[in-house]
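Review this fold:
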Amino acid sequence: MAKRKRSPNLTVRLDPTLDADLDTITSTGLDRSAAVRLAVAFLAFGYRDLWANGIYPKHTAPPRMRWTTPRHYTRQAPDLRVVRDKTPSITQRTTPSRPDEEAHRARVAHRYRSVI
């Protein structure tokens, strides 16, 4: 059987899902033709990478793939305002004190006074 010659054009049936996906990609400034090329190249790169690293056997498509990207940060001036709705309070001791804690403090204080 003779191999059929490839057409220089690609025809794809446009359904509402594909139309919405293309609208999402073209909202970045690409035209529809460039969006299709980008999407196909992206998926093909992912497949080749999986196959080259032995994660999937060659010519086997994974059931799903994900794309991990760094966050896009916009520079913002730091907020230097200090907002205080009430004065700071002193936190009360939550652990029970030892019965001999006062005596211990007195001994420690006496030792330091005698050194000086």
User: Anything to note?
Assistant: The longest helix spans residues 32-52.
